[in-house]
Amino acid sequence: MKFKSIVPGTFTKISFYKVVSDSGTHIGHLWDSAGTLLATVTFSGETARGWQFASLGTPYSVTANKTYVVSVSALHGYGFLHGGLATSINNGPLVSIADGNNGVYADPGVFPNSSSVNTNYFRDVVFVPTTDDPTAPTVPAGLTVSSITSSSATLSWTASTDNVGVTGYEIWRNGYLIDTISGTAHTRNLIHLNAAGLYSISVKARDAFGNRSAASTPADFLTTNPGTLTHGASLTTSMVGPGAIGISSFTNVSGGTFEGAALSGWGSAARTVAAGGETIDGFWFPAGTIVLQGANISSFLTVTTGWLVLRGCKGGVLAANPVGNDGGLAVLYSEMYGVTTAGRKDNMQARETIVHRCYFPEHGLENVYTDNVTVTENWISPYPDTVGTDHIDCIQTWGGQSYLNFSRNHLEFRTPYNSSLSGMMAMYSDGSQAGYNGYDHFKIQNNYFVLGATGNALHAPLGVPVSYAEITGNQWTWNYLAGDKDHTNAVYLNVSVTIPNYLANGNHWSNNKFVDGPYAGWYLLPSDVTDSVDYH
Questions:
Q1: Maximum Cα–Cα distance for the chain, whole Å?
Q2: What is the structure's pLDDT at 388?
Q3: Residue (of 280, 297, 373) closest to 333 by Cα position
Q4: Residue 233, SS3?
Q5: Three-state DSSP class for 101?
Q6: Which of helix, strand or coil describes residue 311?
């Protein structure tokens, strides 16, 4: 491998990754770019496989930005990755050379200068810089998003600066690191986005010593919606659930714990997303995702590992992926008696949860406690609790959450109305998760609330920090049992708790109004006041 260091220091060891078939004596060599042998070392005490290290008898002093070559003889086998050195790899101050002719090789002990498709043979060095660098790069500025489609966008920003030199950038999306850029390029195409998806992107700069800048100011955007539905008021029951995609017969399968593979008995109802991933109903899923379609799930299903898509199914499901598991859940065009997600307060966090075009005829989405939740274009109409031991919500969150998109849903409570009916959009403040008790980056947009005699429609966050919230375009039917226009059950109000400022901290509240009754066209304010003038 050809490489350089962008700062001076010393090479102290040569290393290589050993595969099981790689037997015999291994000798490491360090060369300059002209083919002069600089150091040699013989490996000893090797393990059967994995990374092997051999210390140089005398550490070799390194000149900054000078090209070196490291090689290790292999007589009977070696690990490799075709194209693995086609682009630069940064490892602290060390940078592989991307000149189209890396992955060099030759006979044992001979200077390697032949190349085949920039293959990475996993040869490396251990480097100790002469001096440390505690200074992080400047924060990337001017982050913008352009060329937005239903599945992609282009990201650009002003380059950061650093006392030693910027070696790359990290792209963060909705709280997750999704991409790492080596070099000084400051644009990136974002792909595999979801249609009508809510995204918040930030960028961090990285230097040769591994220092990272603080995150840039986020760039928030919504991908385009290729569908024709623009508001929950236009949603009908024929547009949701299995029937909306022509599924009327079901395969009976068992529930249980999903751990990344189809459960026994799922048979042909389940399939696996192939290499390269797949877009399903406007949402992209990675390779290895299990898709269960047209199934009647006999018992509750709990997802603990991997990605699962339920499409055109019936049943109930819990997303309980541990923090860092990187799996997720999508429920598409299904008829559900419950969708629940466990949150960070229980050390759970699915990478993403999607609920789209589903029918909830009996129960809603109770206990939605994770970040990165999308609930769009669903018909949610739960029954009250007739036993009197529970309270009922259409969508219920805990608090301490970010990146929530609740849009274009139809929400109503079924009769008989009683005191068990609580909130249709119930964003409670029940406690903290991972040290945070507020709500950040969430959207409640273009939903349709059908008011009844009991229960509240919108319970927006109260008494906790709120930032980058967009509560816009929602519509309510008039409740003829309301005492007056400023005391309805359209917006929940607790006079003893502070109402967040929806004119600050990136928040936006507008165009939320009644669509019928004596105040049709009038605006609903965060204080539950109905006014002819919008919130300002």
A1: 91
A2: 66
A3: 280
A4: helix
A5: coil
A6: strand
- Distance, CA of 172 to CA of 156 (rounded, Å): 13
Four-residue CA torsion sign, 524, 526, 529, 531: negative
Identify whether the C-beta of residue 404 lies closer than 8 Å to the C-beta of residue 352. no
At 132 the pLDDT is: 76
| Confidence band for 482, pLDDT divided at 50, 70 and 90 | confident
In this predicted structure, the answer to whether residue 133 has a pLDDT above a threshold of 90 is no
d(CA 177, CA 15) in angstroms, rounded, equals 28
Q: What is the CATH code of the structural domain delimited by 141-222?
A: 2.60.40.10
Handedness of CA 240, 242, 244, 245 (dihedral sign): positive
Strand pairing class (90-91; 270-272): unpaired
Q: Which residues pair with 346 in a beta bridge?
A: none
Q: What count of other Cβ atoms lies within 10 Å of the Cβ of residue 10? A: 17
Confidence label for 89 from pLDDT (cuts 50, 70 and 90): confident
Q: Give Cα separations from 55 to 13, 26, 41, 110, 372 (angstroms).
A: 4, 13, 7, 21, 47
Between CA 56 and CA 493 the distance in angstroms is 71
Residues with Cβ within 8 Å of 298's Cβ and at least 6 positions away in sequence, in order, are 252, 253, 254, 255, 315
User: Using an 8 Å Cβ cutoff, are 424 and 449 in contact?
Assistant: yes
Specify the CATH number of the domain 2-129: 2.60.120.820
Q: What burial class does residue 128 get, using C-beta atoms within 10 Å of its C-beta: 0-12 exposed, 13-18 middle, 19+ buried?
A: exposed
Nearest to residue 104, comparing CAs of 174, 156, 35, 7?
Answer: 35
Tokens of 378: 């669903």
Q: Where are the domains of the chain?
A: 2-129, 141-222, 381-536
pLDDT higher than 80, residue 310: yes
| Rounded-to-integer distance, Cα 526 and Cα 502, Å | 8
Mean pLDDT of the chain: 95
CB 523 within 8 A of CB 488: no
Contact indicator for 123, 239 with CB cutoff of 8 Å: no
Q: In this predicted structure, what is the pLDDT of residue 261?
A: 97
3-state DSSP assignment of residue 477: coil
Looking at residue 264, its amino acid is S
Cβ density class 78-114: b for 16+ within 10 Å, e for less: bbbeeebbbebbbebbbbbbbeeebbbbeeeeebbee
Q: In the predicted model, is pLDDT for residue 384 greater than 90?
A: yes
Amino acid at 504: A
- Check: CB of residue 231 under 8 Å from CB of residue 408: yes
User: pLDDT for 164-219, tens place per residue?
Assistant: 888 899 999 999 999 988 878 899 999 999 999 999 999 999 987 889 999 999 99
Whole-structure pTM over 0.85, yes or no? no
